[in-house]
Specification:
Keywords: FAD, Flavoprotein, Oxidoreductase. This protein is α/β, with parallel strands linked by helices. The chain contains 8 helices and 15 strands. It folds into 2 domains: 158 residues, NAD(P)-binding Rossmann-like Domain (Rossmann fold, 3-Layer(aba) Sandwich); 167 residues, 2-Layer Sandwich (D-Amino Acid Oxidase, Chain A, domain 2). The strands form 2 sheets. Strands 3, 4, 5, 8, 9, 10, 11, 12 and 13 form a 9-stranded mixed β-sheet that branches. A 6-stranded mixed β-sheet has the order 6-2-1-7-15-14. Strand 1, helix 1 and strand 2 form a beta-alpha-beta unit. The longest helix is centred in the first third of the chain and has 20 residues. The structure holds flavin-adenine dinucleotide.
């Protein structure tokens, strides 16, 4: 039996808590966090509820480490699609279209993702579009695969409820799971924050972008963290679009992606602004993103678009990639950038490997 404190209630922290509870029926976990998925307002940077979210691995062709992590996530989410409708994960075809301008920017080279070939490509039913399946005046090539949309706030609450289910009791000595609102200024503070009066064996640091504020993390390490801003529109799906649709364009820091949720909403997004921490959605950006819907996907009716909400989020990127690292009884797990959902299960598995000292990291 081990006693854990996880700092952070984003997708990374909650998934880690889940996997710790699952790993041993006697393990106990306290999550300590500034923000929780059920908060109505996020006064500070908290990324997980803002995301779309889908699975479309960004791993480079030679990055087998991230490819393996993302494969674990894909399989887990498909397990939810098949067996756990309450998880809020919905099967959707995922379509990607590449414009002439983007193709030119890529040096006239077709860039297919790592999951376009090999065994996994068959599992996810990857296929390139044939001529006649897309508008050749707008696009040079395109592909699709069996993807998904994760309704983030439902999904995070589902994961927390799974933790309570494994806990068996809501509080007290018999409980195995506990949540506390709190802010730590140093990771090591968390060793004093267990809900049970017993020694904490491990602290798992899942603080996302805010890890840059933790005083016992080396300043050079903290400086590696930077935000990549995203703006998302939640709109009513009176457009009729059924696939997750991604349009790759040449504009710096911008793009277009559309995710149809089960609940009759679309998520429309399209910016990747490095270092920008502005929390307000500016109208010029909204106009650009929404005008691209008409420009690239004119087969749908965009005239009666009803915007439910606009939201801004900050992807927690880290120079050098994910930090999944053990320092004695502290394990860091942050810096998943624009891939926190798709990587969450694989990252939590790597953390388990570190606890068992199995990992070569
Ligand atoms: C617009 C947008 C679209 C995205 N789309 C996708 C997508 O389609 N697929 C995908 O996989 N990913 C996507 N992402 C990325 C994904 O959302 C992030 O990678 C992920 O949410 C990061 O999760 P996290 O748990 O690391 O951080 P967060 O969600 O930010 O959680 C951090 C937690 O740590 C707590 N915390 C921080 N500091 C302290 C402290 N000192 N004391 C106590 N608590 C603290 C916070 O309160 C919070 O609970 C998207 C992101 C954005 C912004």
């Amino acid at each position: 039996m081990s006693n854990y404190v996880v700092i952070g209630a984003g997708v990374i922290g909650i998934t880690n808590a889940h996997e710790i509870l699952k790993a041993n029926p006697n393990n106990k976990v306290t999550i300590v966090a500034q923000h929780f998925p059920t908060d109505f307002e996020f006064k500070n940077i908290y990324t997980s509820p803002i995301a779309g979210a889908n699975w479309e691995s960004f791993a480079k062709l030679d990055d087998t480490f991230v490819q393996e992590i993302d494969t674990i996530g894909y399989r887990k989410f498909y397990d939810f699609i098949r067996n756990r409708p309450e998880a809020g994960v919905t099967k959707r075809l995922n379509s990607v279209l590449v414009t002439h301008e983007k193709f030119k920017l890529d040096g006239g080279v077709k860039k297919l993702p790592w999951f376009a070939s090999g065994e996994f490509s068959k599992e996810i039913k990857f296929r390139e579009y044939n001529d006649g399946e897309f508008d050749k005046e707008k696009f040079v090539y395109g592909f699709e695969f069996d993807g998904m949309v994760i309704r983030t706030t439902y999904y995070l609450s589902f994961l927390i409820n799974e933790c309570w289910r494994m806990s068996g009791a809501a509080e007290g000595e018999n409980a195995r799971f506990s949540i506390k609102r709190g802010t730590v200024s140093e990771v090591r503070d968390a060793f004093q924050l267990s809900s049970w009066n017993r020694k904490v064996d491990y602290v798992i640091n899942c603080t996302g972008l805010l890890s840059r504020n933790l005083l016992d993390i080396d300043i050079k390490e903290r400086d590696k963290m930077y935000p990549v801003r995203g703006c998302v529109y939640v709109v009513k799906n009176n457009v009729g679009i059924k696939k997750v649709t991604v349009v790759e364009i040449a504009e710096k820091d911008e793009g277009l992606y559309i995710m149809p949720r089960r609940e009759g909403e679309l998520i429309i997004g399209g910016c990747f602004q490095v270092g920008n921490e502005d929390k307000i959605v500016d109208d010029a950006l909204s106009d650009r993103i929404l005008s691209r819907c008409k420009q690239y996907l004119p087969q749908y009716n965009w005239d009666n678009l009803e915007i439910v909400r606009k939201q801004v989020g900050f992807r927690p990127f880290r120079k050098g990639g994910y930090r999944i690292e053990r320092e004695g009884r502290i394990i860091h797990c942050y810096g998943m950038g624009g891939a926190g959902y798709q990587s969450s299960w694989g990252c939590a598995q790597r953390v388990q490997d570190l606890i068992l000292c199995k990992s070569k990291l």
